[in-house]
Design goal:
The complex is a heterodimer of chains A (about 90) and B (about 230). Chain A has about 90 residues and is α+β, with helices and mostly antiparallel strands. Chain A contains 4 helices and 3 strands. In chain A, a hairpin with a 2-residue loop joins strand 2 and strand 3. With about 230 residues, chain B is mainly α. Classes of the chains: A alpha+beta (about 90), B mainly alpha (about 230).
Chain lengths: ~90, ~230
């Protein structure tokens, strides 16, 4: 059975992918890691930029996405909620 | 005439401190569960949060009722009324009404809270079964005035099922945190068993309250472990 990810889980996966790459990732890598279509990824990234969880930076011709402090905080909170959920069997 | 307070006189103030601890722990779990719902909008989080909120509300109402009784007891003591020692309250008194409805409502809330926890934990989906359980819970709460034992045995049974569920969960996951949840519910289950023998002696009530405190402190410790991760 294929389990569909919730929006929250997708956001977590995007942020985690950036964090795992040292806090900075190329769009092509992120597309591969987040397992989303180009349009969907763009949609999520715009939302994350608006919420100040991700920053877009350009270095010459290359574009990068960087995780912000808010993004890291979100990952940590998500981890705690997951732990809480597993502990209490929710 | 109905006896409401079974604890020893020296324990009255201490019991209120215990009640505050239960309320804080229950509200803490409510907060985390509701926060979980905000992150992962699954109804289980919401029901779990609501259950612990009801537990907190129940202890708050019980604490207020206890304070009414204790203050009434002290007032009676000052005018040397001979019923002071057993804190027996006359039905016609307005204080009696506060205590009566307070205790019944507190018991109703705590039964509803643990029933909700049971429905969430055991994933009971059949509405007929849930309806039947709610009916039995309401009857138990309403008649708890006459049978203190029935109330505690009903609660003990719910807690036994919850403890068994968390024991299985621990065996499956082999994670330390779920072991503490099992221990917490088992301690609260034991407290209810002890409370059902409360008419034997005042010290039985104190033992029950201490066991209940251990249960809630274990829940608090579990939350601390979750936050440390």
């Amino acid at each position: 059975m294929i389990l569909r990810r919730t929006k929250i889980e997708i956001i977590h996966d995007i942020l985690k992918a950036i964090q795992n790459k040292g806090g900075k990732i190329k769009p092509t890598h992120l597309l591969y890691k987040s397992n989303l279509s180009h349009n969907k990824m763009k949609e999520y990234l715009n939302e994350l930029i608006k919420k100040n969880m991700v920053e877009e930076k350009t270095d010459g011709k290359n574009k990068f996405y960087l995780i912000t402090e808010n993004g890291v905080r979100y990952i940590n909170e998500f981890k705690k909620i997951k732990e809480f959920s597993e502990t209490f069997g929710l | 005439m109905v006896t409401y307070v079974y604890s020893a006189n020296w324990f009255h103030g201490i019991e209120s401190v215990f009640d505050i601890i239960y309320i804080v722990v229950a509200l803490l779990i409510t907060y985390f569960s509701y926060k979980g719902y905000k992150y992962i909008p699954k109804k289980n989080y919401l029901y779990f949060a609501f259950s612990f909120f009801l537990i907190a509300a129940s202890f708050f109402i019980k604490m207020l009722s206890d304070i009414t009784i204790y203050s009434r007891g002290l007032a009676e003591k000052s005018v040397e009324v001979d019923v002071v020692k057993s804190y027996v309250i006359q039905r016609i008194d307005w204080v009696y009404n506060i205590q009566f409805y307070g205790f019944i409502f507190a018991r109703f809330l705590v039964l509803l809270a643990f029933l909700m926890l049971l429905v969430v934990a055991l994933k009971i989906r059949d509405k007929k079964i849930i309806g039947l359980l709610v009916y039995l819970m309401v009857v138990t709460a309403l008649y708890s005035e006459f049978s203190f034992v029935a109330f505690h045995i009903t609660l003990a049974l719910m807690l036994l099922f919850l403890a068994a569920h968390y024991w299985k969960s621990y065996k499956k996951q082999k994670k330390g945190n779920s072991k503490f949840v099992f221990m917490a519910f088992f301690a609260i289950f034991l407290s209810q068993v002890v409370f059902s023998f409360v008419e034997l002696s005042q010290s039985v009530y104190v033992v029950g309250a201490v066991l209940q405190l251990i249960g809630y402190l274990l829940l608090f410790y579990t939350i601390v472990l979750v936050l440390k991760k």
